[in-house]
Structures are given as structure tokens and as C-alpha cells.
Amino acid sequence: MSVATKLKSSPKPVTEPRAILGPTGNRARVSDESKRKTEALKKPQRPKIPVSRSPKSVVQSNVSVDSCCSSDSSSSNSSLKTVSSTKTVKRKGVKPVKPHVAPTADEVVTGISPVISKPLKRCDWITPFSDPLYTSFHDEEWGVPVHDDRKLFELLVLSQALAELSWQTILNKRDMFRKLFDNFDPSSVAQYTEKKMLLLKVDGNLVLYEPKLRAVLENAKQILKVQQEFGSFSNYCWGFVNQKPLRNGFRFARQVPVKTPKAELMSKDMMQRGFRCVGPTVVYSFMQVAGIVNDHLVTCFRYQECSASVQKDVKPKIEEIERLTKDVENTCLSRK
Predict the structure, then answer these.
(1) With contact defined as beta carbons under 8 Å apart, do 314 and 246 qualify?
(2) 37 falls in which pLDDT band (50, 70, 90)?
(3) What SS3 class is residue 186?
(4) C-beta of residue 271 within 8 angstroms of C-beta of residue 258
(5) What does the alpha-carbon distance between residue 262 and residue 224 come to, in Å, rounded to a whole number?
(6) Which residues contact 268 (CB under 8 A, 6 or more apart)?
(7) Do the beta carbons of residue 275 and residue 223 sit within 8 Å?
(8) What 3-state class would DSSP assign to 247?
(9) What is the pLDDT of residues 297-313, one digit of tens each?
């Protein structure tokens, strides 16, 4: 055979797409389809796992379990929320609501506590700006009946000092007065000489003016004489009011007098006995502070307290005073 026939009988080769040179060199561009095929062959495919279908009963039971769990979780969450809310409420100080109960008597009293806590009503001359010492003097001493001779002598001297000094100044110097006058012992002060009396000075100044100091010395001597005659200086002073304090019902400070007919009578008698510096104004101040007269205003809380204390103590004191006056009368008759 010829070579030409051999060439004709040979099968035709499979034609492949020609590689086309790109502009960048020898990199060939292959068609999209061939490219996709080769990429698909190269990628490994994952085997599909068959899904087994569970029966409906199992699904329903699972659903019920899930619902129970969800309800439990919601209830637990709600309980946690309530616990946290109660904690926050406790922190804020809000008390739990209690059932309504009728208030007791103590609770009613505590409910009126703002009224009780109000400041006490005092006499008009005591203000919130008054000296605390003066306020305590008003609350504890002024207007309280006094029957002790030393205390009465002290109050008489302090009442005489009111012509020069105020009550606030006198009370601040009270300890000094007691020291200089031997705690107002009439028997001791009566032994003072006029020279010693005029040497009673504080910081180079006399505690009182000279006429007042001489009056203190002379009044101490006269008190000793009154004690011999009436048994006590208290019996003499309280005899002007029949051993019972006078009660005035003044409502305003402007109504309180500076002297009264009773004070004028007492002042006159004391002057006749030799007392000095005992005018009606001084004597009435002495009667007020010694409780011989109760001049607390009726709106003052001390008005009723002084009156109540007098009613408790007046009977035994009257009996004692009557007994002493009888003893004095008997001694006077025996001397005659």
C-alpha cells in the first residue's frame, strides 16, 4: 500500500481546542465549560447523611418536655426577678405592707408627739434668747414657796440688788455673793464690822454700793431679832399672807404690778423694825421670788405646778407654824 492510503485509513484524531496565547505570554485561556468541569472533578464531595424521621409520639413528648422546661425557666426567672425586686425594696427601706390593725393607746400618743415636743410655754419675760441660767431660775426657783431662813435672807439681798443689777447679772454672780456672805448665814453676817463689809470687793470693785452693803449688815441683825420674836424669819414673812401664798391670775406681763398694798404693809413693818432698803418695790420682788405670791402668768406651765406644790405642803407647815407661835406666846407670857 501506498503511504497516502495509509494516511487516509487512519482514524481522525480528536480535535482539542487550540491554546490561544494571551497577550501576557504563554498562558492559555480555556473555555468556561471545560474549566467548570475540571474544578468540579477536583473538589471532593461530602457524603449525604440520611435523616431519620422520629415518630410523632416522640416529637410530642419532646415538645411537652421543652414547654415544661421553658415554663420552669420562666418561673425561675420570674422568682429570681421577685427576689431581686424584694432585695432592692429592702435596700430602699420600703417596709412590707401589713394588715390594717386598730392603733393602740401608745400609738395614738406617739402619733401626737409633735404636739408634746413643742417648747414649754413660759412667762412672757422669758424668751428663746434668754440666758439659760435665767431660764432655769424661772423654771426651778422663781415663785416656789421658801421657808428656810437662810434662803429667805439670800433672796432678800438679791431683791435689793435688783435696783443696781438685772437678774441675769445677779445669777451669774450668785456664787460670789454666797462666798462673800458666808452662804447667807444671818448669825455670821451679823458679826461683820462695817469696815469688813466695805472690803467685800471683786476685781477692785464693791459687789454692791455702800448703802446696800450697810443694809445687808443691818438686816442680818434684824433677822436675828425677828427669829427670837417669831421663832423664824419665815414665820414673820409668811404671817402677812396667813401662811398661804397669794395666787394672781394675770394673763399678760403688763398686768403684773411692781408693788401691792400687801407689799406696802410688809415694807412699812420691816422699816419700823429697823430693816433697810426694803421699799414696797423691793419687798414685792422678794415676795415674788420667795413664792409668797405666785405671779407666774396663767399661760405659763409653772403656774399650776407652783400651786400644786403649795397644796401638798401647806397643811403640815401651817400646823408647825401654829405650834411655834404658841410656844413663842407662852414664853412671852412666862416672862411677864
Answers:
(1) no
(2) low
(3) helix
(4) no
(5) 23
(6) none
(7) no
(8) strand
(9) 988 988 888 877 655 55
